[in-house]
Design goal:
single chain, 151 residues, 5 helices, 5 strands
């Protein structure tokens, strides 16, 4: 039985599908859900000559706040106990998977739920896979929810 579920969200379709699965499990098992968003700008690639890093950081934080608020609304509507957490400083730049696993460990989560984009080939090699990193690093059960389409 899963008493505490950590749900990692990123605002994507696969993340929304993972939210549905986490909510379904939480309702069935009377579990608490901790929803996290890791605000990390280290993987952003730019094709422009100039960007304002402060503005970029603020935009990522706002996006994370919106993703968490959306998840909270859904879980509230489903009657699921939950809390949200915006993680503004990952355990190290670019280490989103390690940050998710660390948060699950610190919060004594029994299960980690997250979406996977299902990237293949070059896109996966270049962009990496947070989901794969979580699977590799976690000693807890991990539920991956894949979107129907490649994002």
């Amino acid at each position: 039985m899963y008493r505490k579920i950590l749900l990692a969200v990123d605002g994507s379709l696969s993340s929304d599908l993972a939210l549905i699965e986490a909510s379904t499990l939480a309702k069935a098992m009377d579990s608490d859900v901790m929803v996290v968003f890791v605000a990390d700008d280290s993987d952003v690639m730019f094709d422009v000559g100039y960007f304002d890093p402060v503005e970029l950081r603020q935009a990522i934080v706002r996006f994370g706040q919106d993703a968490l608020a959306s998840a909270a609304r859904r879980l509230s509507a489903d009657g699921v106990r939950h809390a949200t957490r915006l993680i503004e400083k990952p355990v190290a730049p670019g280490r989103i998977a390690a940050t998710i696993v660390s948060e699950a460990d610190a919060g004594n989560a029994d299960l980690i739920v997250l979406g996977t984009h299902g990237r293949r080939g070059i896109r996966r090699m270049v962009m990496g896979s947070v989901a794969e990193g979580v699977l590799r690093l976690s000693r807890k059960p991990v539920l991956l929810v894949r979107s129907e389409i490649d994002e």
